[in-house]
Sequence to fold (309 residues):
Amino acid sequence: MSRLAAVIADIHAAMRDGRERGQVARYIPELAKVDPAHFGIAVVDAAGVEHVAGDADMRFSIQSVSKVFALVEALARHDERVWQRVGREPSGSAFNSIIQLEIENGRPRNPFINAGAIAVTDLIAVAAYGGIAAILRRVRDLAGDASITVDGDVAASEAATGFRNAALANYMKSFGIIDGPIDATLDVYFRQCAIAMSCRQLARAGRFLMHAGRCPTSGHPIISPERARRINALMLTCGHYDASGEFAFRVGLPAKSGVGGGILAIAPGRASIAVWSPGLSPQGNSLLGTQALETLAQAMGWSVFNPDP
Ligand code: GLN
Fold:
């Protein structure tokens, strides 16, 4: 057994037996039904070898991890114009906070908090840019898996209860940050959050970010190396909302979490990693997923702050 395989097996054993598992997201009724006992992990290494353990092939709601894929799509369509409507600073606030929008003229701090993600999705929500079909196509292409779909029940559940997101969208619209009709933009946003993927599929979809934007199989650029570096930078600084500093301190890898309990983490040049455990910290990040990544990063020496071994 390779060292990586042994580390993953140890992590799986520890997480399976973990007692403190956090709370599943209750504000989206469909997510409240998910059993917190699940734990899955998938690691694709630089050579393309996949290591998995636990519920690595069980699909879950990727939620805010989709914000990475929507950003890639929006940048592909609009290039640097994306940054006219959304910033690149950590917010230090909850993922669904509205407080900074008033002070900062409706321009969200970054593309990974809800307000910023809604503003990014609005850029591709119109039919000309493909809406949810474009985001789904992007995810399928990156994962190399045409079976990935939107979970309609989760999307409907969130649409029925997404008053806070509607407030953010309306508030931004009043500042001219949102172009489209609010309902249409939110519809795409709720559907992208409801994309269902397994850890294995998610780790595959993240491979281009470990390979400086290149397709892992053909070597062709999917995005430029500079764009990949920048997305990784945003994941590191903003990927865990008001726990992003803590995550960088503990794990030291670019990563994006979602309230479904999934986290996509990138060890540049080394691995694309997906973990899933539905119980969350108070900030809305997977409790055991974070612990698993901390253990993995430490055991393998995978940190963007480590010198090359
Ligand atoms: N769909 C969720 C929401 O908008 C996404 C939040 C998250 O995963 N942090 O509330």
About this structure: The longest strand covers residues 40-45.
